[in-house]
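Methods — Computational structure assignment.
A single polypeptide chain was analysed. Its primary sequence is given first, followed by the predicted tertiary structure written as structure tokens.
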Amino acid sequence: MLTEASPCICGIAAAGLRTAVLLCAACATIGCEPTVERPEVASYLRSEQDLQRIQRVVLVEFSDEKAGPEACSCFTDRVVQALSQRRLFHVELLPVSDPTHQLLPPGRRSPLTVEELQQIRQTLRVDAVLLGMITSYKTYPHMQIGVYLRLLDLKNGRVIWSVDDIWDAQNKQVEKRIKRYFRNNVADKYEPVDWRLATISPTMFQKFVAHEIARTLPGDDSDQKTLDMDDFFP
């Protein structure tokens, strides 16, 4: 049997409804949006269509006085491997020892001229070039790698894709991502090797950073058990 609601209850309900309406109006005025997490890695992608036009890419070997030639060479190899696994384009390495390396200073941030673009394209026979540098590198008291990398279309000089970030093993968010990377990539036969080894092994930390750089590009995100025991020790 239905009963008539008391005036008190009706008043409370009406007040609640008015409050809800006012909140909705306020959201419409100032713009209420759901909380969106910041990207894990600071990166830029012009468009996937631009990437689809790129078939062959050359990666200029990283350089940095603080990291040293050996660390730069190893990290460059890790990045080439990680990018190749995305299967977006063919990646070739341009080592420091190659005379053509002088045409492409890895740390250059200023735009290339039309003449430079044409010369590089004709010399290397590629569609785009990856220029980058290690901006920060530490192994003690904790692992840290900073990377600036950009993909230039040699047809027009536009930046198609870029990454500019620092990975610090002491950062809590980075630590969570290391755990996830270790869980998804370490071969089952090597368990129970602890993920913390990634924070003290330069080789493994470099692999983790290269993996995160590559994942800012579209591609296959299926998990692969790619880590070997040699990656766990400096």
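Note: The two ends are 78 Å apart (CA to CA).
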